[in-house]
Amino acid sequence: MKCSLPVSGYLPNPLEDSKGTKLKYCDQVPSILKDLEEKGYVLAVVSKISNAKAARQLIDLFGWDHFFSFKEIYPG
């Protein structure tokens, strides 16, 4: 997913980047994350991405931040 900061919007409405591109995820992601959390899994995000700040912002705006105990996102 390419994303240009800043990102705006609030769920459940579509999020948009600064160019008006709608940002979305696979519908099953929230239920999968919740299921893993309920089963006691410790989750982490590890990524090397061109826009690390946008990746962190999207995790937060999608409401997934609390699912991840560790977040290692680096520009690359």
TrEMBL record:
A molecular function (GO) term: phosphatase activity
Gene3D superfamilies per UniProt: HAD superfamily/HAD-like
Organism of derivation: Callosobruchus maculatus (Southern cowpea weevil)
InterPro entries for the chain: HAD_sf, MDP_1_eu_arc
Protein name (record): Uncharacterized protein
